[in-house]
């Protein structure tokens, strides 16, 4: 030991150097204990329930998408049918307007209110009941 002779400001150099030369390091290693089997099963069950719920929600979205696709297809078909009906109505109107000029060009005579037109029956024709004529 070094004597300081009453001077407290002087420290021992040897102790200081020895503490710098060797420093003991300690590390704490903690090992986690394994989870009990019940807790593992609980976690597994909760994951399975979450996956099932997500699957159900996804399936519902797919079903809704399919319904929307069917609705769009049916609406486009309906629009096409409505266009066809409108075209048929136009054709019908044109044909109605063309009946009289076509008949007159073929030599037919238009009936008036005061003059009825009589059509003679030819000798070989017979009237058939409506039920037999439809077959």
Written overview of the protein:
- There is one protein chain.
- This protein is mainly alpha-helical.
- The chain has a domain at 36-106.
- Helices cover 61% and strands 0% of the residues.
- It has helices spanning 13-21, 37-105, 130-133.
- The termini are far apart.
- The relative contact order is 0.03.
- The mean pLDDT is 83.
Quick take:
With 135 residues, the chain is an all-alpha fold.
Question: How are the SSEs placed, and which strands pair?
Answer:
Blueprint: H1 13-21, H2 37-105, H3 130-133
**pLDDT averaged over residues:** 83
What best-fitting shape do the alpha-carbon axes yield? rod-shaped
- Secondary structure class reads mainly alpha
Largest sheet: none
Number of DSSP strands? 0
Question: Roughly what fraction of the amino acids lie in strands?
Answer: under 5%
Radius of gyration: 53 Å
CA(first)-CA(last) distance: 138 Å
Our count of helices gives: 3
Q: What is the N-to-C order of secondary-structure elements (H for helix, E for strand)? A: HHH
Q: Helicity level, as a percent range?
A: 55-70%
Q: Runs with pLDDT <50, length 5+?
A: none
Region (Disordered): 1-23
Coiled coil: 71-98
Transmembrane segments: 41-62
Organism: Saccharibacillus brassicae
């Amino acid at each position: 030991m070094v004597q300081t002779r009453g001077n407290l400001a002087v420290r021992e150099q040897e102790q200081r150097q020895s503490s710098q030369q060797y420093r003991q390091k300690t590390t704490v290693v903690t090992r986690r204990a394994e989870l009990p089997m019940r807790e593992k099963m609980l976690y597994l069950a909760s994951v399975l329930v979450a996956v099932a719920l997500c699957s159900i929600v996804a399936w519902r979205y797919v079903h809704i998408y399919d319904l929307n696709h069917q609705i769009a297809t049916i609406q486009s078909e309906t629009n096409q049918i409505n266009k066809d009906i409108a075209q048929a109505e136009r054709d019908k109107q044109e044909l109605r307007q063309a009946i009289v000029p076509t008949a007159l060009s073929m030599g037919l005579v238009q009936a008036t209110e005061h003059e009825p037109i009589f059509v003679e029956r030819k000798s070989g024709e017979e009237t058939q009941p409506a039920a037999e004529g439809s077959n």
